[in-house]
């Protein structure tokens, strides 16, 4: 508290005092049930959304209070980059490999395989589902340790970029049922690394396929924040991060980067700060969103109206186009 006060912050004595004293709430995780009652009408919320955990009640409470909410996952630059997602995905990809290596160890109930192998002993086989930023950093770390790596994705151009980036030191395949089933039987580690833009109507890896995986193998479902990549995935926590199903260790913790809180804090601050400065440059939220393409794309609630179609479809709330709402003011 002393360090924050020295930097110019005012220290609130309780969450209630904090929510009553400000117009803008910036936090990392989505609002928790106990926090929803603290919001004041017309406030602005900036946080992660975690589509896989969004509830009708959460959205209804925020909507009833005319909240404007901006989601980390939705903030997008004009060239289609998701800057905050990318920053946190870099950390999540690296952590996925560290975590997988740990849970392969015998003491954690794993198969006892060293991820990178040694002379005369083959390395582990790592399959990464998704050729995005999480997949890129997971592949980079896995290859660096000496693992055998396969990356699968539904988009051939993403796989071409991976092959070129890694100079063909990994194997790529289209993410269809045939290759998924084949790779599940071979893999010591499977990592769900789909990006938020890759919507799933059902898990890519079914429970029947998970049943064919080797005993002691490991699943890391980084995609659990948005939607499960595996039919056997369910949310876990940093306190109780794993469970075993069909002989396979599952790690399905939302917000994996919080396991390395200091690195994640500095990385998030570096990316988020430039967007927060825009709130000093303009007087009203409508002016801020009108002038900032990235924050406008990031808004999923505007004065209580749901402005993201995927959230509307998920919760049943009516969808309103944010450009139309802003233009009508």
UniProtKB/TrEMBL annotation:
Belongs to the AlaDH/PNT family. Residues 104-252 form the Alanine dehydrogenase/pyridine nucleotide transhydrogenase NAD(H)-binding domain. Coiled coil: none annotated. This is alanine dehydrogenase. GO terms for biological process: L-alanine catabolic process. It comes from the Bacteria. InterPro entries: Ala_DH (IPR008141), Ala_DH/PNT_CS2 (IPR008143), AlaDH/PNT_N (IPR007886), AlaDH/PNT_NAD(H)-bd (IPR007698), NAD(P)-bd_dom_sf (IPR036291). SUPFAM superfamilies: Formate/glycerate dehydrogenase catalytic domain-like, NAD(P)-binding Rossmann-fold domains. Gene3D superfamilies: NAD(P)-binding Rossmann-like Domain (3.40.50.720). Its EC number is 1.4.1.1. It is an enzyme of class 1 (oxidoreductase). Residues 1-92 form the Alanine dehydrogenase/pyridine nucleotide transhydrogenase N-terminal domain. CDD domains: L-AlaDH. PROSITE patterns: ALADH_PNT_2. GO terms for cellular component: plasma membrane. Keywords: NAD, Oxidoreductase. One of its GO terms (molecular function) is alanine dehydrogenase activity.
């Amino acid at each position: 508290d002393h360090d924050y006060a020295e930097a110019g912050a005012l220290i609130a004595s309780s969450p209630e005092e904090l929510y009553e004293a400000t117009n803008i709430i910036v936090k990392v995780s989505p609002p928790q049930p106990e926090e929803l009652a603290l919001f004041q009408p017309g406030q602005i919320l900036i946080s992660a959304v975690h589509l896989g955990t969004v509830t009708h009640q959460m959205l209804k409470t925020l909507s009833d209070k005319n909240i404007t909410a901006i989601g980390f996952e939705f903030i997008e630059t004009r060239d289609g980059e998701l800057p905050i997602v990318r920053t946190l995905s870099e950390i999540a990809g690296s952590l996925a490999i560290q975590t997988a290596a740990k849970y392969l160890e015998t003491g954690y109930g794993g198969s006892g395989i060293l991820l990178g192998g040694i002379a005369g002993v083959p390395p582990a086989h790592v399959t990464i589902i998704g050729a995005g930023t999480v997949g890129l950093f997971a592949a980079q770390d896995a290859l660096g340790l000496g693992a055998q790596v396969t990356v699968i994705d539904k988009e051939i151009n993403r796989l071409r970029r991976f092959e070129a980036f890694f100079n063909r030191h990994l194997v790529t395949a289209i993410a269809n049922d045939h290759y998924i089933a084949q790779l599940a039987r071979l893999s010591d580690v499977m990592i769900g690394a789909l990006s938020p833009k890759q919507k799933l109507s059902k898990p890519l890896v079914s429970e029947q396929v998970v049943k064919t995986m080797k005993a002691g193998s490991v699943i890391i479902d980084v995609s659990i924040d948005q939607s499960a990549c595996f039919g056997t995935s369910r949310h876990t926590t940093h306190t109780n991060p794993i469970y075993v199903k069909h002989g396979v260790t599952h790690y399905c913790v939302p917000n994996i980067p919080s396991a390395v809180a200091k690195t994640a804090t500095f990385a998030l601050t570096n990316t988020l700060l430039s967007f927060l400065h825009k709130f000093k440059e303009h007087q009203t939220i409508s002016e801020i969103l009108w002038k900032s393409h990235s924050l406008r794309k990031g808004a999923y609630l505007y004065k209580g109206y749901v402005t993201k179609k995927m959230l509307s479809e998920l919760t049943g709330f009516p969808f309103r186009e944010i450009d139309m709402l802003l233009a009508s003011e």
